[in-house]
């Protein structure tokens, strides 16, 4: 479709859905961040009838970060800006988690992994030690909206990314299998753009390095997602604004979230200020209200102050 963008017939990631509300939904679904890199590295056709200017390329470095070609390579690793600080702050939260972790108790039993010597010598029937049975794992899906307001600081974006990955680890420590996805939903007139990318499947190990760029790199929103939109076969006037980001209510309707799904909004939606990682983590957990699922750590109780997020 030269000059009109890609079509569902030629693009395995695209589905176009006609909704009853007369909205037309352009849904891009990627099973990994690597698939995003694969799609964009082939330089998919640009819908030049709608996008007269390719902002994924022409936006300034000050606004959008590294050039598009470099940003595409970041999708599969290599984005390292402030990554050491990211890992250090993530470790601070994880130390608190470990203090609150529920440890499986060792109990006596007829069978087990090591002998109970006194019981064996006394000819007691339960002469072995074993770990108490673990609960059946439950599944939870986390959706993180990667877009944010223009006034959002890099510290807010970074802290949200740290806390989101900390949430994954916290849930897994509490016997949950976590499915973690990032997304954008925006609209223009009668059209909706929906892009979702899986960062971690349930049962899969978390890989912070691959999550870091899409969660914390401004290039991902201002270069990568813009470039994907430029290849959509839109009909309405997306070229100027690249769409209006939907609020949480409309987002939930479009994304068809389950009641058990966890929604992570922009840093401001999650009351993240970017000044202190402990205060931001407490504010974040208060927003998503997981008290019915796990025992919630109170990070500020640690009495440790980390000014300016670092």
Task: Annotate the secondary structure layout.
Blueprint: E1 14-18, E2 24-30, H1 33-41, H2 55-58, H3 61-64, H4 68-74, H5 83-100, E3 106-109, E4 114-115, H6 117-121, E5 128-131, E6 138-145, H7 154-173, E7 176-188, E8 191-200, H8 208-216, H9 218-230, E9 244-245, H10 248-255, E10 262-264, H11 277-288
Parallel strand pairs: 2-8, 6-7, 6-10
Antiparallel strand pairs: 1-2, 3-5, 4-5, 7-8, 7-9
What does this structure look like?
This protein is α/β, with parallel strands linked by helices and 310 residues long. It is 35% helix and 19% strand. It contains eleven helices and ten strands. The strands form two sheets. Strands 1, 2, 6, 7, 8, 9 and 10 form a seven-stranded mixed sheet that branches. Helix 5 runs parallel beside helix 7 and helix 8 crosses helix 9. The radius of gyration is 23 Å and the shape is elongated. The termini are far apart.
